[in-house]
Batch of 4 targets.
Target 1
Amino acid sequence: MTATYHVTVTHENDLWVAVVDGLPAGMNSATDVERFADLDAEVRDLIAGLLDVGRHSFDVDWRFADGARVSAGQMRALRRLSATLSRWRCPACLSDVRHPSVGPGGVECPLCAHVDGRRAVRFTRRPTRAGYTWTASLDEADR
């Protein structure tokens, strides 16, 4: 049976902070990154390094401070969506950003860490031969 680690993510002081539950006592269970797109790899490196296991030998259950939960498949979809965005103009610092990262709250500016929630992330689950896969897209928020 594959181990599952629960990770709680917050956005504090221009950093994405991830706290991992379920690690042995006394181990550093937190890490942070500047870009949301780097979060999955950093958390997997932390767990794998502390436990001396492979990066994909366990599952991660993502929970966000606002109560949202994102599956591993949805995290992969967010990374793919981030890779497809070529340009975006940050409404906070007015920078023209190439390849911004996309998090569950919207598009994130790597320069000022502003998260533009006016563009909501929508997840779609599509069937495949192996089961299903997630895709993510940006839509105007219903706010």
Target 2
Amino acid sequence: MSTESETVKVRHASPREVRRRARDWSLRTLYQIDVGGVTVDDALSGTMEQLRHEFVQNVRTGSPDPVTERAALECITAALAAEVAAGATLRVRDLPAWVQALFIDLPRRQEQLCRAGLARVAPVALFGDERAADWNTAISEPGDVLQLLHTPLADVREQVSLAAHAELAASARRFVAQSRACLKAPQTAAGAIRSLREEARTTSVERWRHAGRAAARQVVDWFETSDYARRLVTGTQTHLSEIDSAMRVACKGWAMDRLAAPDRNIIRQAYCELRWFPDLPARVVINEAVELAKRYGSADSGSFVNGVLGALLRAQTGACEASAERQAAEELECLR
């Protein structure tokens, strides 16, 4: 029996929520580098692993006891993190179908356990045909699943199956116990067990389809947050000299070490976004940096960060306008 399924659009965190979480993690990393003297690679590696662990532990599935989901997410995110660390380029839009595909074998595995358990308690003469029937229930492969990783999809799927084994086995034991009870009425036992089997099939397919969707949502949120945090840290560190030079001018000659460490690093990463993340509106970047300063800085940090970033933005806008005027003059000169 095969139950039709399709890749479901995953509703995940908004871009603003992704940026907010990523900036928190980026700020922690920049602080370790700036104040703690940790190397960029070590700080970033530690942050990425802590962030991954947080997402795994705080899984949001709606399940009352999401032990299986946590174990599955540990396998999935570890595989993805290893690929990213090795230089693989993954597209967020491909992740939901890939993650959901990891759960498609679980209903079939549960039915195999149910079948094996039934064979131990049911008389062969009574249930031979039922036990020999097709027990291979599965959720159909969702959409056009891409092979995202160097690690084969089947290998990660096997890891997820192992993570779910305890729950699959428990469900099979319940089915066998109910079937054993049906044997007390031999005349109706076959029909009763068939009904139990159909109910177990339906429950299993829905259970693991829901788990796949929840895992896909969590993986997308984790991946987008870690990707943005990583780009923000590396961008800030790559352009640190230029950022600090602009900050000295905007801070009217203040030495960088006189600025409070949280304020200094909040301004650094926000200016990185203003300069090298062109898709973000400047006002959004500044407003969200001010929120961060109010959370981690002193009582005056919000207004201070707002003032410095405003000065940096005006200087940047003026420099861009001057550059455009020079380019236009040069083009005009060439036409003469």
Target 3
Amino acid sequence: MLRALDRERFRVIPIGITRDGVFVLEDDDPDKFALDAAHLPEVGDNGTRVLWPEGGADRVLRVRQPDGSIDTLGSLDVVLPILHGVHGEDGTVQGFLDTLGIPYAGGGVLDSALCMDKHFMKIVLQASGVTVAPWVTISREAWASDPDAARRAARTLGVPNFVKPSRAGSSVGVSKVHDWEEFDAAVELALAEDDKALVETAIVGRELEVAVLETPGAAPARASLPGEIVLTTREFYDFEGKYLGETGRRSCAPLRSRMTRSPLCRQQPSAPLTRWAGGDSRAWISSSPRGHLRQRAQHHAGVHADLDVPEVLDRVGDDLRRTDQRPA
């Protein structure tokens, strides 16, 4: 996103969050955050402290420099959350921005929280009439108190299956279980990332991803052509395949997704579907926009053939500013 934003139309103020939860002013340098297998980017504490607006009609962003001086950065129009995982995609930052009255791209508090938690997302999708992959949820407490019961429940799904944290992104903590000897280690890995682990039936089929772009007012949301995730070197779409290597992707025929009319989606989430060999589809995740995955950014931009990444970002920014209801 840093590289794609039109600097003649937008002044960009990059803000990072350290592992300790400190908001710092970051460098406006896309190369600093490029994904490299030898060096994954990380936000460090550079001594600056971002001072958010105080709410009400105030939209002025300030920063305290390491020497204690305070600089005014200007009045905020729009925030683009490009955070991954817990405390980024789960509604926490979204609620913070709602409290301050600052418009932002992506899902709101409820839809972000639901899309982040795979267990509850599946329940909501089922209630909306969308078919999902069969699953069993194992809590950390259940695994500690009665692991045999959890194993029996999981065996109803058969193998191969996938074990994953309920709330984690980027395929972190995900394992493919080929036989039951691998199951316990897979559950332990998933529960190291979250207090719930999902066991899902492995689906053999085509994996399709659809981008959705909200439009202002009563106009219908715009859905992209599906992109197909074609794995060339990996068994499943894991962290390395998503971020550090090429897996292959091609456009498919137009597909209208029922999820475009769901309250789960607001401004370009991804909605992967898997089409089973039998011909029917299963939805298994809906997620928020993120900032530095080149392949996904390009696909999310392709809502229509006439839009590229910078044009989609222009449209998101313009729509948010146009519909913004500033406090009186």
Target 4
Amino acid sequence: MLLALLAGVALAGCATSADTQTNGAGEILSADSTATIDPSTDSPDEGLESTGLFTVYFSDENGSKLVAESRPVEPSTDTPTAAVEALLGSPTPPNQPTMPAETRLLGIVVDANIATVDLSSELIENHPGGSSAERLTVYSLVNTLCELEEVDRVIILVEGAKVDTISGHLDTSGPLVPDESLL
């Protein structure tokens, strides 16, 4: 009797509908579930793909030049967004951040090899000022994004608007190219 009860409970959990579906990994979805499977990203080997690297430029400990740091990126990640988010984060000591505290990425679009980056007003409001700090801020962003194959130039927006300068020393009104003299 107990054996028959256990068998009934086990069978009750099995789907018997002709509408039963499985996802790309062979997992059973409920009869009323739907899933969209993208064969290019959903596979039994998902998560086992090799991780790539991109370069982010922070200030050296003296605030005099840019120093490259490699960061991992998953193949399915939006790399320009990941690169800017990494730049807004913390560098590896003794390197120093170049972006003012609390600056946020509002958006980024890459079109015709030009990355248009929209940053929050804290980029200007919290900037320490000075020509050296402004050059490091601007070119840490430009050099970082131009390391990506799809980016040759960068336009900087603040709260959706073009800005002539971040702190009064460097023209940021048009597309910018990398400055390798800071490396």
